[in-house]
Amino acid sequence: WERPDGRHIRQRLLVVANRLPVSAVRRGEDSWSLEISAGGLVSALLGVKEFEARWIGWAGVNVPDEVGQKALSRALAEKRCIPVFLDEEIVHQYYNGYCNNILWPLFHYLGLPQEDRLATTRSFQSQFTAYKKANKMFADVVNTNYEEGDVVWCHDYHLMYLPKYLKKYNNKMKVGWFLHTPFPSSEIHRTLPSRSKLLRAVLHADLVGFHTYDYARHFVSACTRILGLEGTPEGVEDQGRLTRVAAFPIGIDSERFIHALEAPQVQERIKELKERFSGRKVMLGVDRLDMIKGIPQKILAFEKFLEENPSWCDKVVLLQIAVPTRTDVPEYQKLTSQVHEIVGRINGRFGTLTAVPIHHLDRSLDFHALCALYAVTDVALVTSLRDGMNLVSYEFVACQDSKRGVLILSEFAGAAQSLGAGAILVNPWNITEVAAAIDQALNMSHEEREKRHRHNFEHVTTHTAQQWAEFFVSELNDTVIEAQQRTRK
Ligand code: G6P
Known about the structure:
EC number: 2.4.1.15
Radius of gyration: 23 Å
GO cellular component, one term: cytosol
Largest sheet: 9 strands, mixed
Structural class: alpha/beta
Low-confidence stretches: none
Shape: globular
Number of helices: 19
Family: In the N-terminal section; belongs to the glycosyltransferase 20 family.
Number of strands: 17
Distance between the termini: 24 Å
Strand content: 15-25%
Keywords: Glycosyltransferase, Transferase
GO molecular function, one term: trehalose-phosphatase activity
Bound molecules: 6-O-phosphono-alpha-D-glucopyranose
């Protein structure tokens, strides 16, 4: 990035996401302890050398007092993070309400909540108002921290209004928006009462990105059918102004997983797990406990497999890691009890005094424990009902270079478009089909597993998170330069 005075500096990237990549715990009136959570986005940006990334987002905690806010801001600044403080009411209406009870299920084809469809639209309206208010609060923090030449990269369905507010503040800001979930068919999107406003707000960005070509196509169709705008191969055009729309499939930092397998504590853990499950094939599911992940359907398919193949009962175990999430949203609470009920029933039905077929954990595992689990797994079950990409499938593949386990993957996860040739693809709603895929996976020859694994490993190690981030930001820079050149002509 060349400054007006001719000096070259690393371009600053302001990454704006609902959640900061740290968890904050208050230790005293003005002291906080922070832990970096290395999710996909964090590892993607840690590896990018061209930019100097700064994060703007919610720290996930309510901090009503000024002393606490100041202390937290200071602690976060050391991690290059800038907080947006949201009070409890906003979190309730914006995050639990509009984001996670309306947009999230809708974008994953689960429809709008029944009560909002039937009853008066009052709660829907107030949640939408809170959504805009929260987006405005993010925009204010971005605007305060923005310096000329910065690139602003907005993330996910929480912040669809952000491009609009940012461009209102400063029309010259380079603004990109990336959606980490699917963008649904325009017929689904059109059921949303605020369908047009959200599309128009996103279109203020210079570049709009999705994980797959299909999601990008759905977005462009929604703009043409709902807003009557022109869709071009480049994006969406409105009164001569083009918003570029394209697919940028994310990846993982595969090296981090591959190296972790060599760590002594991971090797030790692998040895323990092998002893613990010796004589049994290990099947693994790792999901946030979310309705889009299809956990009940997956467990029912496993039950069907055991029912049809009783000789496997004491020779296979399913380890399901279900990470609690959005626990204040009633739908998620219902799901937790539903999953517990099914697991209990199946373990009662097929368990013996010495072994149970399903080990279900309601918690997350640390990175090293997770790597060890991936490494000892014979069959991974990623059977989301819908999923933007699903990086668990990538992580599993990265950890399997000695075992060559089989990946059973939902055809409705974005990852199906990249790992489809190596995985067994299934329709997660079809329990009979998933049960048959389990059978196929457990009986697959070594040659077949080798061939499939090679394909997937090659993809996962060559399409990394760093490349994804670099590609998006360089496209965003180019898009803005091209637009400037067009206006000059
Ligand atoms: C999905 C979303 C992310 C979100 C994550 C965890 O992957 O795309 O934006 O951060 O879920 O959900 P949470 O509500 O806990 O942030």
